[in-house]
Amino acid sequence: xxxxxxxxxxxxxxxxxxxxxxxxxxxxxxxxxxxxxxxxxxxxxxxxxxxxxxxxxxxxxxxxxxxxxxxxxxxxxxxxxxxxxxxxxxxxxxxxxxxxxxxxxxxxxxxxxxxxxxxxxxxxxxxxxxxxxxxxxxxxxxxxxxxxxxxxxxxxxxxxxxxxxxxxxxxxxxxxxxxxxxxxxxxxxxxxxxxxxxxxxxxxxxxxxxxxxxx
Length: 215
What we know:
This protein is an alpha+beta fold. The protein has helices spanning about 1-50, 60-70, 110-125, 165-180, 185-200; strands spanning about 80, 90-95, 95, 100-105, 135-150, 150-165, 200-210. The chain has five helices and seven strands; from the N terminus they run ααββββαββααβ. Helix 4 packs antiparallel against helix 5 (about 185-200).
């Protein structure tokens, strides 16, 4: 009788061990699927943002709005034309502009990159209502080329933009500061950074500049 009970117990134990192995395998697979899902979700978000970052067609032109939104560099806004999404609406960069600042002359290339920063801020901050804005804005130049458009020299600059939803950014920042940057908690630090990565949006966008004034 006791022998049968022992045999039955060993059988149950083996079944439990087998089930535990199966559960561990399933959990590992679920983690892999979760990682793939996060990557796919991030990619889809980037596609979605690629459709919505562009300023509306009726948005004020750079010369009308940049001096208002960036008062500290208002005397350096030597721009005319459009927002530079294509050659037809290229941003005209002037090295000098007597209407804005008759006493200064600026490097045209430096003005191009100053404009890139300003347009991204217009797209992700000024053009959006509170609660739908972005923080932690950054960009990297992907490529730059000189293009002749009907005899007029243009710079085409492709950049990759990264940013984070304002609410999520503030929550992550508060969490980071509350735990002193997780100096003594590698796991908590990793979790915070994973959450940050999960909410990050990315998109690529072109900037077209008419550079006839200084080429």
